[in-house]
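**Protein of interest**
===
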Amino acid sequence: MTELRSRMIRDLEINGLSKSTQTAYLRHIRELAKFHKRSPDELSLEDLYQFQYYMKKEKNYSYSYYNQAVCALKFLYGFTLKKDWNIHQIPFQKRSKKLPLILSKDEVFELIRVIDSKRDKTIVCLLYSAGLRVSELVTLKVSDLDSKRMVINIHQGKGRKDRIVMLAENLLEVLKQYWLESRPETYLFPGKIPGNPLTREAVNNLLKKYAAKAGITKNISPHTLRHSFATHLLEDGVNIRVIQFLLGHRNIKTTTIYTHIAKNYIDETPSPLDTLFLSKLEDNNE
């Protein structure tokens, strides 16, 4: 381990960043060093711009991945290396305002129906029934499930926040069948490496496999089920503040995105064209 990496790990720990964030930041800095074939502490601000251009134009990284890399750069050069640059000169990318992709209830049902593995069915049902992030799912422990209170305890979710979500009755039966077959001890979904949980990539891959099997052509990910959870709750009349709490959103504005795709919000709002013709028809009948 290089001295710079050791210093950055120390600083990440001091700042209380989660293990997953630490891993992501170190990965981005490793990619920076690989791109320039030099140690990051030898690079200039112009070198960072070249790396950002490479991420955008050649790798075409998503908005979230790109901006996470920028956060890593700002941390390394602003906190660890304490460069006398104006750190704001390392720009973020503006977020495009896209509506989240969701599945209909029929599509979710079909997705679950085609799964023939007890473990995989449990994973998909958990993602959808509780609106979990994939990072929360893979780090779930057997002890986090409280069947007496019918809740799931989420520890140190995004923003290092704990929260409680519902344990659906139908999910409980699926969980029992999985537990009787696999008998997980620590992590609810252990990975191939002893003592480690299942990886996010494994969850993403199995979801895409079953989506194809179910004839779902949408490019779904684990987060699609979280979006579907929130949208279907809103369509069923659940208060948006409750949904905010269940999702673990800090700001209600993040949750209100689902009002743009909830079908009942659209169905219950008449088009002005319809009301225009209705008013004209009433005028003619008078």
Q: What stands out?
A: The mean pLDDT is 89. The longest strand covers residues 151-154. The radius of gyration is 23 Å.
